[in-house]
Design brief:
Layout lengths: L8 H12 L4 H12 L8 E5 L5 H8 L4 E6 L2 H10 L5 E5 L12 E7 L8 H11 E12 L1 H4 L8 E3 L5 E4 L8 E7 L1 E8 L2 H10 L3 E6 L5 H6 L12 E7 L1
Parallel strand pairs: 1-2, 1-4, 2-3, 4-5
Antiparallel strand pairs: 5-11, 6-7, 8-9, 10-11
Length: 245
């Protein structure tokens, strides 16, 4: 059974509060970076993997996408999506990407926001995505940065001096890929660590051409709204990639 931490009652309660806060890492850093990689969406057929509460799927329709197929493993997330971001041209499905089936060459653009680090068999999923893309089409995704996922401890890897100021970020076990168990909002959150080279080479192996990579850095306005973003200048939280079939 694939882990579905987002339907854990306490996790979902805390995560919903986090995402609905006016300023958070998603809306100030990750989502602007993801949207900057998008092609012109006019008349495109889109698959959004790990659609969550549907904000991004709805954004695509607002920007003239023809249709969005949006999938997620969380009933709680999809209930909000279908209530707050319903649209005749968005179809929401309770489905993991590992179990989702579509004909080859079905989509003009496939997106995934912070969901692929939950995938155990990355190569199999990238192969499926490549098959579903039409020739010349775009795959855009974000993951937690491998610098962050490398650690094996549940604690934050920021180290602090005697005055309580962060002195540096410790990286360890980077090339020891695989399962990581985290405490994030609740205990027992399972993610998978992969090196940057593994991510890139897997895309290449499935005939996807890397067009752009981003490790987003917040601007001064974002830092003013959420001061903890200042640390992003020292250690990136996210890695984003745009690739073409």
């Amino acid at each position: 059974m694939k882990q579905n931490i987002y339907d854990h009652p306490e996790f979902f309660h805390q995560y919903k509060k986090l995402r609905q806060a006016p300023y958070n890492y998603n809306n100030l850093l990750e989502q602007p970076a993801l949207k900057s990689l998008l092609p012109n969406l006019t008349n495109l057929q889109i698959l959004d993997i790990g659609c969550g509460m549907g904000q991004f799927a709805y954004y695509c329709i607002e920007n003239n996408a023809q249709h969005v197929t949006a999938i997620d493993v969380s009933e709680h997330m999809l209930a909000i999506a279908q209530c707050e971001h319903a649209h005749p041209h968005i179809d929401y499905y309770l489905r993991a990407i590992e179990d989702y089936q579509a004909a080859p060459d079905s989509f003009d653009c496939i997106t995934s926001s912070l969901s692929l680090h939950y995938i155990k068999d990355f190569s199999a999923v990238i192969g499926k995505i490549a098959r579903m893309l039409r020739p010349g089409s775009i795959f855009i995704f974000s993951v937690e940065h491998p610098i962050v996922t490398a650690r094996k401890t549940t604690e934050d890897n920021w180290l602090y001096d005697d005055s309580g100021n962060s002195s540096h970020y410790a990286i360890d076990n980077y090339h020891d890929e695989g399962l990581r168990e985290r405490t994030w909002l609740v205990d027992g959150v399972v993610k998978y660590h992969r090196s940057i080279s593994t991510i890139i080479n897997t895309l290449i192996e499935h005939n996807l051409t890397i067009e752009k990579m981003l490790e987003p850095i917040p601007d001064s306005e974002a830092v003013e709204k959420l001061p903890s973003l200042e640390k992003e200048h020292r250690r990136p939280s996210f890695l984003l990639i745009r690739a073409r079939k």
